Amino acid sequence: MGFLILASVFQLGSLMSFTTRSTEEIFSFFIALALIIKAIMAIVHVYSHGYVGCITGVAGELCDPAEPLLFIFLLFGTTWLSMTIISFRSSPYLSRWKRDLVSDYALPIAVLVFAFISFFGFSDVRKEQFKIFPRDTDAFFVAFYELPAEAQLPALGLSIPLAILFFMDQLLVTNTVDNKDNKLKKGSAHHWDLFVVGILNIFLSLFGLPWMHGALPSAYLHLKALSDVEDRLHNGYIQTVIVYVRETRLATLLAHLIMIPVYFFLVPYITVFIPTSIFNGTKTAYVFPELLYFLPGVFLFMAFSSLTGNEFWERILLIFTEQRAYPPTHYIRRVPQRTVHQFTIIEFVQLVILVAISFAQYHYVEMVFPIVIAAFIPFRYFILPLFIPIQYLEAIDGKH
After folding, report:
1. Cα→Cα distances 188→22, 194, 250, 309, 359, Å
2. pLDDT for 352-399, tens place per residue?
3. Among residues 16, 54, 8, 88, which one has the least CA distance to residue 279?
């Protein structure tokens, strides 16, 4: 994390001014796709252990076909209800502020509804509740000073790609959210944010807690929750635009303050209503955190929500859209259709590379992930113009 602090002190975040929309869109689309893949992996785990792995006629402790069926019902039910409630904003019912309030809380409402259905409607189906495991040690701090001398240099080397990952993630998220399209008025603080992330994660590392930084799509969903939007008619098409954003720290501050009593006093009671699945052939149960019944549904909701307004996703849809039904997007009027599709295919290849590296079987391949994202920036300026003329690139992929 010291590398992040040095990067903020020397204002290396200014290098991210060279990023264009395509880099941000590819990264955002990758996050959405990764969430979808995690949900699919959860389904595969459930069915491979609770359904496919069952031996016909043998009733074992881990053989319960009803459990994967309930898993699918809760997963897609949570996603469907969340998407339905979030669209309540454009309905004619209730007053505007009430519609906005219900829409902003679409996800927690859906989770609570299906948690209630699961707890009371399917009480006879075997479900393992989420378990809170005690610490393996009573040590308050991580004993980093006990690391052998021969391991310190490799640890320093491994910290470099980690620092690049945090650097790219934090600033790409900042550029995605903090741009003129979102009508933000307060000035940005890219370098200060990077400094705070570095300091924060040093303390989290000392206590053995998870690291934190800005992330998609939660950052963008938070922006939308604080925004007033309008549906405007433009060239015969209805477009949802942000007209005002409540730029306040109170929402985030209050949310995290509420987490403190919830974490220390209410978690043991809340987890009773949150079922998980235990899938292991041994007698010792092992909880797969990714197999939370509702978490895959949350993944799908966040993935689908983050695709809204992503021009990369919109250009993928254009490949399968009749030409006369194309929206009146500015670059469509200035760039040949073949060039638009060519640019989209190149973006798709970049996305496939990210997915292949991120979900590689070998962990040392995953370490290349931040370097590949950083390499997309010079690729855009030096390689891509060899295939697509500059004037078309500026129209499709200019800066915000």
Report:
1. 21, 12, 18, 22, 33
2. 999 998 888 877 777 788 888 888 989 999 999 999 999 888 888 876
3. 54
Rounded to an integer, what distance in angstroms lies between the CA atom of residue 224 and that of residue 358?
Answer: 28
pLDDT in tens, 198-238: 898 888 888 878 888 887 777 777 887 788 777 776 555 66
Q: Which residue has the tokens 């019902």?
A: 73
- 66 CB-side CA count, 13 A: 9
Q: CA 400, CA 384: separation in Å to the nearest integer? A: 19
Helix 149-177 vs helix 369-378: angle between axes, to the nearest 10 degrees? 50
Q: Residue 242: beta bridge partners?
A: 229
User: What letter does residue 128 receive in the DSSP assignment?
Assistant: E
Q: Which amino acid is at 327?
A: P
Q: How far apart are CA 168 and CA 70, in angstroms?
A: 39
User: Per DSSP, which regions of the chain are E strands?
Assistant: 128-129, 227-234, 237-245, 275-276
In DSSP notation, 2-63 reads HHHHHHHHTTGGGGGGG--HHHHHHHHHHHHHHHHHHHHHHHHHHHHHHTTTPPTT---TT-
- DSSP-derived letter for residue 282 is S
Residues 370/161, Cβ–Cβ less than 8 Å: yes
DSSP SS3 for 242: strand
Q: Please give the distance of CA 223 from its chain centroid, rounded to a whole number.
A: 14
DSSP state for residue 183 in the 8-state scheme:
T
Burial annotation 49-58 (CB, 10 A radius, 16+ → b, else e): bbbeebeeee
Which amino acid does the sequence have at 144?
F
Could you give the 3-state DSSP secondary structure of residue 77? helix
Residue type, 72: I
Quick check: 147 and 155 in contact, CB under 8 A? yes
Cis before 378 (ω within 30): no
Q: Which residues pair with 73 in a beta bridge?
A: none
306 contacts 314 by C-beta, under 8 angstroms: no
